[in-house]
Design brief:
By secondary structure, the chain is an alpha/beta fold. It is built from 47 helices and 26 strands. The strands form six sheets. Strands 1, 2, 3, 4, 5, 6 and 7 form a seven-stranded mixed sheet that branches. The chain has a five-stranded mixed barrel with strand order 17-18-19-21-20. Strands 8-13-10-9 form a four-stranded mixed sheet.
Length: 1148
């Protein structure tokens, strides 16, 4: 006898974040195995997984029941409650039909947008207006009826049950029974059964599923620990009271409720009542209102025609033909409004001074987009294809992503809300999932595995596109296999990490995604909130499947930089260039690129890209397009990049298997670099339509062997019709398969190459203005400001100190360098600086001193801390006073300012005000020169507020010595291999001591700090044993030499320290001879060199390493009587004479 039918109606998936451990696909498979015809999804307070669940069930032949276990505020959802207060209960809601689904969408949205308080909450008032079409179950132990039973309030429980029955209808409200082994649940079940007998409200059996199998209980327990920040071993932590919340079979449920068989059957009755089909076949694009009598179609045609005339004139037949073709396809696919929406957004942004990028993605291949000025890359000039963007044989929504200036993106979003309605426009959710490394670290914390050990294990796991899953790596990666074999104590770490890899962990707002609908969004999609922003509960791809318009508004910092660079050129009085009319053959730009001088150049800043540029030495704009397409793992690993470089430089012949391929591959020296080239070859040689060619391109990208085999046959047959020999056609196809799979989207590469060229041209031709703009866009990142300052210094452009009379909020080009921006001084703020600049403007014709400015601004606008930061930064240096002395006089200046402000409020003028009104400025009070700072004090204060040293460096006098005693600098550290042993010298700061909390070293002290040298900084870690040995030497502002191993687990330069020495101790360790390297070019300096050595006589033998004319280096012992004493002064003098790095030490 077969088991009775049953349907699970209370089910939590991974979208009950950090609580549910069920994967949707696994639930569907479980239903199929057990013959269950239907299953519900009822995640806590959200519908995050509902659409994925619906599609998976439908595909698997299982009936989906869409629902939600809502949180119901006990009072009003609009009233917040404290965390300690039991302010909400649970209720299980299931959508029965289309109306019920719309109501559930609305309730799920309201719970976030109106009721969020620790949890997304609805209330009885919200339910009353949206109960139609919804089946309600009374919930788990946290349901309010059950809570009342637990408090022995049976009358109130019965009253509430009656209210819910009346609200949802007598056939659609059910009392929910669960048998999970919890004693309290059993007592509540008895009360529910009696209540059903008295009221006739029917019973339904559920199992509150949180995990798939009984043994997965521990996986969910780990999830809960991750959620609450608890250790699994902590006996006092919160945990589930049962291990029975798994997917039970029909037989198990029938047996468990054998005394109440009707409650089992009821689950199927409820599922059978569900009649809900979601519509994925329609578009819900907003209607574009023209605001005139002109229709959208007429406006589209007129704008296209005007653009065609503007860019091509009346006689350009090729452009006319292409435009008419694209317009016809766009009209037939129903996307006229879409193009007008995008056109309107971009036009509005440009009209309001918000820079917009020249295009991105495949949209740059559209001539319609170009003539509408949606994009600014000419598709005909660069052989870009419309079909790569919009394929009429494969109906899908166009995808035009837009780059806006980062600072203007929010304004464009606000305009979109105003244009189409705030209730029809919102941002899009994205789910953070537990990648392998994240899972290992999360689980490691729960299991109390030492952090350093977990980090080491996590580093063994590759990450990024194409990386294998942890479950596969654990069985195939040699290091991980050995680790698991040698360390059985880590079995749980791997078990739970594998189980949780890929599980949704949290929600966040997509960096760019925006959805626009033709109706109120909650008609189609539930909403949530994240960090104060309203977002959809479903991610972008699912919104597109529903037919909603998804767009990406990307904030691109580079556009902000270019806008500021243009403004800097204007302020300097030079002619402002047109970014769209820059010469594409600028020799200075190509020379700069070939030198790898690309800091600040869009897409070309990485070390690997610099090396590629130095080898490739681009000479044409087309080379830049190719560089952006080639610098990816596939082309780099396949040998394509090497072939490209050899062919460009004539080191390998360029060949074309068939003449039709030459015009297609000429710009890339016969190499297949772009997807569009694959499409054009297929079309020109084998007769594919461009739509068919795009389908080939897509199949190639998805690596679909069966589909590719069909295309291969068609390609070879078509090539034969063009007179191409079979073996040649097969060779071409093999080449397409080999390299075409790595092909990049040329439209995107071309659009981004234009931004690359603009930034490169600007740096080569207006470096001062360009670097100032970059610094202004990194105001709060002193490390990046320092990097740009070093770049400017290398080009002979100094970073000038902040000056209260000269500086603006931003960094600005000045005749003698780049003036530091006041906004980058730590401890200042925008309002304070704005007030100061306004006060400076009122002091026309006079150099503002501290006292005058204090009298001009209100102390509430510019607080004391701001004044201190300005003084420490050197803003008043130009007035000839020491910073310490100026700071000592700050109190007096602030007192004078307060009196002046009081006089102004009283309508009085002081004696000094009258003098100034008469034209003679009052002399500032004298400064106490005895309060001057030492050089060390000045530099320390400067570093505090600027984040780096500007007017000097504490290590400058010892720079040569560090060059001798160190094996590398902080700037070279990341070029060394992991665990490489190095010696660094520098200044220590930011020392933090901590106590190890877990593992064998628990309770012992360790420390971290930064080491700074003249090139940058590196983080140092002192583990307990090392810290115990050297803690007496290590202190903030100490200058030390450290030896250790490169730590590649950190994002920046980092070292795990093994030994620490003072400079004096290091010199004693290196007690051998001194070697100085000289070249033939130094011949004129030899006499002066010996004068230097004479001044530094000592006991160390001296050798010269002489570079001969034959290129060989020969050691030459200097006069045995001439020994030298090693010191910072000797190193400094030799560096000054011959250049850095010429002197070395040898151990005895």
């Amino acid at each position: 006898m077969s088991a009775p039918d049953f349907a699970h109606l209370h089910v939590h998936t991974e979208y009950s974040l950090l609580d549910g451990a069920n994967r949707i696909g696994a639930l569907v498979d479980a239903c199929k195995r057990d013959g269950q015809r239907a299953i519900a999804i009822t995640d806590h307070g959200n519908l995050f997984g509902a659409l994925e669940f619906y599609q998976a069930c439908t595909k698997g032949g299982i009936k989906p029941v869409l629902g939600c276990e809502v949180y119901v505020a006990k009072k009003s959802r609009l009233r917040p409650h404290s965390k300690a207060e039991n302010g909400y209960s649970h209720l299980t809601l299931l959508a029965r039909d289309a109306q019920g689904w719309r109501n559930l969408l609305a309730l799920a949205s309201i719970s976030y947008t109106e009721g969020y308080n620790y949890r997304p909450r609805v209330d009885m008032d919200a339910l009353r207006g949206r109960a139609q079409g919804i089946t309600c179950l009374s919930g788990c132990l946290a349901g309010e009826i059950n809570q009342l039973f637990r408090l022995d309030k049976e009358a109130e429980a019965e009253r509430l049950a009656g209210e819910l029955r009346d609200l949802f209808g007598p056939e659609h409200f059910w009392l929910e029974l669960q048998r999970n082994g919890i004693e309290l649940q059993d007592k509540v079940n008895e009360s529910l059964t009696r209540l059903s007998g008295r009221t006739g409200i029917p019973l339904v059996a559920t199992n509150d599923i949180h995990y798939l199998r009984h043994e997965d209980c521990s996986v969910q327990d780990v999830l809960i620990c991750i959620n609450t920040g608890a250790k699994r071993a902590d006996e006092k932590r919160w945990r589930m009271d049962t291990d029975s919340l798994f997917f039970r079979t029909r037989e198990e449920m029938a047996h468990m409720f054998r005394d109440l068989p009707g409650s089992v059957k009821a689950s199927c009755d409820i599922a059978d009542q569900v009649d809900l089909k979601l519509d994925f076949g329609k578009y819900h694009l907003p209607v574009f209102e023209t605001g005139t009598q002109e229709s959208a179609e007429q406006l589209f045609d007129r704008l296209c025609e005007q653009g065609l005339q503007r860019f091509y004139g009346p006689a350009h037949a090729r452009a006319r033909e292409r435009l008419e073709y694209e317009k016809r396809v766009i009209r037939e696919m129903g996307f006229v409004s879409y193009f007008l929406i995008v056109w309107d957004l971009i036009r509005w942004a440009r009209d309001h001074g918000i820079p917009v990028g020249p295009g991105r993605g495949s949209a740059a291949g559209s001539l319609v987009a170009y003539v509408l000025e949606i994009t600014q890359v000419e598709p005909l000039k660069y052989d870009l294809l419309f079909e790569r963007f919009l394929n009429s044989s494969r109906i899908s929504m166009p995808d035009i992503d837009i780059d806006f200036c980062k600072e203007g993106r929010e304004r464009v979003l606000q305009y979109t809300r105003e244009r189409y309605g705030a209730d029809r426009v919102t941002q899009i959710v994205t789910f953070g999932t537990m990648a392998a490394r994240t899972a290992l670290r999360d689980v490691g914390r729960v299991l109390d595995v030492p952090l350093a050990e977990v980090d080491k294990i996590a580093k063994l796991v590759p990450q990024g596109p194409g990386a294998k899953e942890l479950s596969e790596l654990a069985e195939s990666d040699a290091d991980l296999v050995k680790l698991r074999k040698d360390r059985p104590d880590l079995a749980d770490l791997f078990r739970y990490s594998i189980a949780l890899e890929g599980v949704a962990r949290h929600i966040s707002t997509h960096a760019a995604g925006v959805v626009i609908a033709d109706k109120v969004l909650t008609e189609y999609v539930p909403l949530a909130t994240h960090d104060g922003e309203v977002v959809t509960q479903w991610p972008g791809p699912q919104l597109e499947q529903l037919g909603l318009l998804k767009m990406d508004y990307l904030g691109l910092r580079t556009l902000t930089i270019l806008a500021r660079a243009l403004e800097n050129v204007r302020l300097s009085g030079a002619r402002v260039p047109d970014l769209l009319a820059l010469p594409e053959d600028d020799a200075a730009t190509f020379k700069m690129l070939a030198q790898g001088d690309t800091l600040g150049v869009f897409q070309l800043e990485s070390d690997g890209m610099k090396k590629l540029l130095a080898r490739l030495r681009p000479t044409r704009f087309e080379d830049l397009i190719a560089v952006l397409a080639l610098y990816r793992p596939g082309p780099l690993e396949s040998g394509m990049v090497e072939m490209f470089i050899r062919r460009k430089h004539g080191q390998e012949p360029i060949s074309y298997p068939h003449p039709t391929m030459e015009p297609i591959l000429r710009d890339t020296y016969g190499c297949i670099v772009y997807q569009e080239q694959v499409m054009l070859i297929s079309s020109a040689l084998s007769g594919f339509s461009l739509n068919e060619a795009d389908n080939l391109r897509k199949a190639m990208g998805k690596k679909q062997p069966e589909v590719m085999q069909k295309f291969a046959s068609k390609f070879v047959e078509g090539a034969a019709k063009s007179g191409c020999a079979n073996n040649v056609a097969r060779e071409i196809w093999d080449n397409i398969e080999k390299f075409g799979g790595y092909g990049f989207n040329k439209s995107h590469s071309t659009a981004y190459a234009l931004i690359t060229w603009q930034t490169a041209w600007f740096k080569a031709n207006h470096r001062r203005e360009f670097l100032a703009a970059n610094m202004s866009c990194e105001m709060h990142d002193s490390d990046k400001i320092k990097a740009f300052a070093d770049d400017a210094k290398a080009a002979g452009i100094p970073l000038l100190p902040p000056d209260i009379a000269e500086s603006d909020w931003e960094f600005r080009p000045a005749p003698s360098g780049i003036r530091f921006g006041l906004g980058a001084i730590k401890g200042t703020g925008a309002k304070a600086i704005e007030a100061l600049l306004a006060a400076r403007g009122r002091l026309t014709g006079r150099t503002p001193n501290l006292h005058e400015l204090c009298k001009e601004v209100d102390s509430q606008e510019v607080p004391r801390l701001t004044w201190e930061a300005l003084i420490k930064a050197g803003c008043f240096d130009a007035q000839g006073h020491d910073r310490g002395a100026v700071l000592a006089g700050l109190d007096a200046a602030l007192s004078d300012g307060s009196r002046a402000a009081a006089d102004r409020r009283a309508g009085q003028s002081s004696f000094f005000d009258l003098l100034e009104a008469g034209g003679d400025a009052a002399p500032p009070p004298s400064v106490d020169a005895t309060r001057a700072w030492s050089r060390v004090e000045r530099l320390k204060a400067e570093h505090e507020v600027l984040g780096f040293y500007l007017s000097g460096h504490p290590l400058e006098e010892r720079a040569g010595l560090f060059g001798i005693l160190s094996t590398c600098t902080t700037g070279q550290l990341q070029q060394r291999g992991a665990q490489s042993e190095v010696v660094l010298g520098g200044l220590l700061r930011g020392l933090r001591e901590s106590v190890v909390k877990t593992g064998n070293l628990a309770g012992q002290k360790m420390a971290r700090c930064l080491l700074e040298d003249l090139e940058g900084s590196a983080s140092l870690t002192f583990f307990p044993r090392t810290w115990e040995r050297f803690r007496a030497l290590v202190a903030d502002d100490s200058v030390l030499i450290v030896k250790g191993k490169v730590d590649d687990r950190s994002e920046g330069p980092a070292l795990i320290v093994d030994e620490v020495w003072t400079i004096e101790a290091t010199l004693k360790r290196f007690d051998g001879s001194v070697w100085i390297y000289v070249t033939p070019e130094d011949e004129g300096q030899i006499e002066r060199l010996f004068e230097v050595l004479e001044r530094h006589r000592g006991g160390r033998p001296l050798y010269l390493q002489v570079l001969g004319a034959d290129g060989r280096v020969r050691p030459v012992r200097a006069d045995p009587k001439l020994g030298v004493g090693l010191s910072a002064e000797l190193a400094r003098d030799v560096d000054a004479l011959l250049g850095r790095g010429r002197m070395r030490l040898a151990r005895t």
